[in-house]
Amino acid sequence: MREVTIVGAGLAGLVAAINCARAGHRVRVLERFERIGGDPYTRPAVDVTPMDPERLGRFIGMELQPPHVTPTQEFVVYVYGKPYPIPGWQLYLHSVERGSRPTSIDTLLYETALEAGAEFEFGVSLDSQGDFAQLPPNTIVATGLHVEPFLSLRRPYQDVYGFIGKTRHEGPPRIMGFFDRYTKYYNYCANANGVAFALAFDGRPVPPSIRDDWDRQLREWEGIDFEQWLPHEGVVATKRITSPCLYAGDKILAGTLAGMQDPFFLFGVQSSLVSGKIAAMAVDDKERAWRLFASFTSAYKYSWLYKQFFDMQPHFARRLGLRLGFGLYLKQRALIQPVIDVALKSLPGFGRY
């Protein structure tokens, strides 16, 4: 039996803790915040992601069911003001609550990790290269959007800026995506379990005027009035085409730090869950874990190149291309769906278990 240290009690860290504990190791999880669920500044939140909960659950070793993982009923894409409604099941979308409430996936994973025998230490902050150097070999580092581990482990990163909105909102799980002149990326608003969450982000600071315009549109188009808007900054591992990385020296990387997010939409839930399982495998079998990691991230370079191309397009070209694409999908779904299915399988953590 080994003693395994895991830094970070997010999705990847918790799945790694569950699987390491079940493998017979003594597991110690170090978390910078004082409770489970990530940064309370951004929580509760709602993520929506393509997912096959049954297959993914078998892979990571637990059931993923409502209210923690719930089918998304509708996806409405606003392309420069024009809505395109799509049933959520057509894109395999599922809504996932993040945070410390009983209905969050974080709480589900934490309780499962405790049952498996993992031990937790809260309020532990590791911020320097020396802090990480003192951690034992085979430490799993799963620290999310925080920049300090990227700097300490010399991993490339991309700054992201934006703002988030949170409010109470009842109704069936939905997601609204917004491609417009707001940012080079996209905005989204989703709800589940009585919570609505909105996120706008870009590779550069987003001015308050953009926030005010989007806030008005959400009220007028969706009837959601956000009680609070907060500025948000973070980092993601999409700086380079070669960003995905499982090992840094004698440390094992997981989640955002490992670069398993797809570089276009930055879907993080399913990739973090899968990444946590792979990191746990790496404790005992580095070669097998590396081969699996390489398989899951094999399409990363193609998505990365497409993201660079998309970001270079002027708004008139995006508007034309996106409206043409979504319009064709709604009219000819039977013909387009096989292409969508192939594209979705390129996402880390979807369809490769």
Describe this structure in words.
The protein is of the alpha/beta class and 353 residues long. The chain is built from eleven helices and 16 strands. It has helices spanning 11-22, 53-60, 105-116, 129-133, 147-152, 208-222, 269-284, 286-296, 300-312, 315-331, 333-344, and strands spanning 3-7, 26-31, 45-50, 69-71, 74-79, 82-87, 93-98, 119-122, 140-141, 158-168, 174-179, 187-192, 195-202, 228-236, 247-248, 251-253. The two termini are 27 Å apart. The mean pLDDT is 93.
Count of distinct strands: 16
User: Main β-sheet, in a few words?
Assistant: 7 strands, mixed
Cα-atom radius of gyration: 20 Å
- What is the first-to-last residue Cα distance? 27 Å
The helix-strand sequence is EHEEHEEEEHEHEHEEEEHEEEHHHHH
Strand content: 25-35%
Low-pLDDT parts are none
What is the average of the pLDDT values?
Answer: 93
Q: Give helix % range.
A: 25-40%
The neighbouring-strand order within the major sheet is: 6-5-11-12-13-10-14
Oligomer: single chain
Q: Which structural class fits the helix and strand makeup? A: alpha/beta
**Per the principal axes of the C-alpha atoms, what is the gross shape?**
globular
The number of helical runs is: 11
List the helices and strands and how they pair.
Elements: E1 3-7, H1 11-22, E2 26-31, E3 45-50, H2 53-60, E4 69-71, E5 74-79, E6 82-87, E7 93-98, H3 105-116, E8 119-122, H4 129-133, E9 140-141, H5 147-152, E10 158-168, E11 174-179, E12 187-192, E13 195-202, H6 208-222, E14 228-236, E15 247-248, E16 251-253, H7 269-284, H8 286-296, H9 300-312, H10 315-331, H11 333-344
Parallel strand pairs: 1-2, 1-9, 2-8, 5-11, 9-16
Antiparallel strand pairs: 3-7, 4-7, 5-6, 10-13, 10-14, 11-12, 12-13, 15-16
